[in-house]
Specification:
seven-stranded mixed sheet, binds zinc ion, single chain, Rossmann fold, alpha/beta, about 300 residues, five-stranded antiparallel sheet, 2 domains, Gyrase A, domain 2
Length: about 300
């Protein structure tokens, strides 16, 4: 009887241990890609703060680093993870990497063919875009542009995109959903028209070169809440669908650049400043777009 009693207790304890630890052990290690731009970081309200050598650029770097650490912290609060952080602004040497959470790996420098999405592959569970901005020509978006000042417009399969939309489409072809993005109100409005996801609005744009700011602590609190919310709903997140071939339409700021771009085989001229190319997939499209706006500078 006594033996039976102990066996029963042992069985109950075993079942209890399995069911309670089940939540922790059934969760696989998450793999998260974070691309971080600067214009949409909370607490940044001038163009100078985003430029190396500009007034308060050092503060901008600190704010950018703090936001990444906040998101990383929230991810680890949710569960164990492999996190790759890709510095995605300007020369891509902005994050204060000595202050970055040591649990992440960090991609630096802008000489990389896939720029803001470098390092992303189909093994990732999700992507998060922090500090993003609206596309070139967006009415009122804070520091709105696409890639560089060389781009007046960019379309993928007929959809006009900025950096956020382009990167989300790229992630989509790898089967990776964008579960959270942050930036100014105009970016959020534009991005959620293309991507069914949640955003954190870090500031209200006041025209193209000014913004009404929230205190960075408030932005970080929102980022933390939304990151956990995004991870809780990870199973329902859907990557964007892109059909191949991928038609890239690129409107340059100058006719000279369009002339030079025409040297690329199979490039089609649409008008003085606009060209079009049929790429076999998003990978080819992305690399080509980067060449056109970054390395052809006339
Ligand atoms: Zn940027």
């Amino acid at each position: 009887m006594k033996l039976f009693y102990f066996r029963t207790i042992k069985t109950i304890l075993l079942i209890f241990a399995i069911t309670t630890s089940g939540y922790m052990f059934s969760q696989e290690k998450l793999k998260i890609f974070i691309s971080v731009d600067m214009e949409g970081i909370g607490g940044i309200g001038t163009p100078k703060m985003t430029r190396s050598g500009g007034k308060d650029y050092a503060t901008g770097r600190q704010l950018m680093t703090d936001e990444v650490n906040t998101v990383v912290d929230a991810i680890f609060e949710f569960g164990d993870a492999d996190i790759l952080v890709n510095d995605s602004h300007g020369d891509m040497q902005n994050l204060l990497h000595l202050q970055l959470d040591p649990r992440v790996t960090y991609l630096q420098s802008n000489i990389k063919p896939l720029g803001m999405v470098q390092g992303l592959d189909s093994s990732f569970d999700a992507a998060i875009f922090i500090g993003y901005h609206a596309r070139a020509g967006n009415l009122g978006g804070f520091l709105a542009h696409t890639g560089s000042g060389s781009v007046k417009g960019l379309w993928i399969n007929g959809i006009e995109v900025g950096e956020g939309g382009l990167n989300a489409l790229y992630a989509g072809t790898l089967g990776v959903p964008v579960i959270l993005a942050s930036g100014d109100d105009k970016f959020s409005e534009e991005f959620t028209k293309i991507v069914d996801t949640r955003t954190v609005i870090t500031k209200t744009a006041v025209g193209s070169s000014a913004a009404k700011l929230l205190h960075p602590d408030k932005v970080k609190a929102k980022l933390k809440t939304k990151t956990v919310e995004a991870l809780r709903n990870l199973k329902t997140a859907k990557p964007l669908n892109v059909s191949n071939p991928v038609t890239v339409r690129f409107k340059s700021s100058t006719t000279t650049r369009a002339d030079v771009v025409m040297s690329i085989p199979n490039m089609k001229r649409i008008d003085g400043t606009t060209v079009e190319y049929k790429a076999k997939n998003m990978d080819e499209a992305y690399r080509l777009i980067r060449v056109m706006y970054k390395y052809i500078s006339w």
